[in-house]
Amino acid sequence: FQGCLNAGAESANLIEILRLDEIDAAFDSLRAQGGGNARELDTLLALAHKLTGSAGTFGLPAVSSAAGELEALCASLVNEGKDASENLERIANLTNDLRQAAEKETG
User: Fold this and answer.
1) Residue 49 CA to its chain's centroid (Å)
2) Residue 17: partners with Cβ closer than 8 Å, 6 or more residues away
3) What span, in angstroms and rounded, lies between the C-alpha atoms of 89 and 8?
4) Mind listing the pLDDT tens digit for each residue in 18-65?
5) Where are the alpha helices (DSSP H) in 1-107?
6) With 0-12 CB in 10 A as exposed, 13-18 as middle and 19+ as buried, what is 51?
7) Which among 24, 40, 98 is positioned nearest to 74, based on CA atoms?
């Protein structure tokens, strides 16, 4: 039983370390503003970029891959000077995929 508690705590800590709640918050803020907030898009890009690398370090390839897809979309929008208004559904799907990958790989 204690092992299960420890595993659950480790999983929760890893989710926290991966900063998924921050990614969700950045996306929620971006969506609430119709996708036009460049600062929130930059925040989402930075968080996804960090997670792409750190997930690989933690041995979480699916998380790294999902974060990389989110990072690529955000980077494309930033580099092209576009807002995210036409991509909010895609970003929502990617953040959901990211959380599902994290939950699956961290147990």
Assistant:
1) 9
2) 54, 58
3) 31
4) 789 999 999 999 999 999 989 999 999 999 999 999 998 889 999 999
5) 2-18, 20-32, 38-57, 61-79, 88-106
6) buried
7) 40
